[in-house]
Amino acid sequence: MEAVTNSTVLIVLAKINRLDLLKIFKQIIATKEIYSEVLEGKDIPEVEQSCLKTLFKTIKIKEPAKILNLDLGVGETSAISLCLDENKLFISDDKKARKTAEILSIKCIGTIGIILENLKQERIKKNEAKEIVKLIISNSYYLTTDLYIKIIELIEKN
Predict the structure, then answer these.
(1) Residue 23 and residue 13: Cα distance in Å, rounded?
(2) CA 5 to CA 52: how far, in whole Å?
(3) Among 20, 80, 130, 134, which residue's beta carbon has the most beta carbons within 10 A?
(4) pTM, 2 dp
């Protein structure tokens, strides 16, 4: 499975040193705007930035044929435009960007979906999946209590 990424998931997974979870994708594609957001526009600690630089050696950088006029940031707009061009899955945790993508019939996956897919593919165990969820929450990833309970239930059912 190939996917176009936004910056949010990459940063979340880099913060917990779990970029390896992205190996469920055959190829990850990013735009130059996403590359800039991740590596140049953020105040990311050196360790995380090093992990992200290593990851970007495997990510294909590509530009959309046409940039849509969307009420989103330049990174999200370029990534969604590329998803439409390439008919690819959209990797993002950004609620507004995901909603826009879904309106355009683009399938989306975020950090939680990536964790669950790794569990489904038996790349991680249930306890590890729960620990990863706890780690992302402790690194400023917001989940409502209801959503957290639902995620734990999904992990247990898998």
Answers:
(1) 12
(2) 13
(3) 80
(4) 0.91
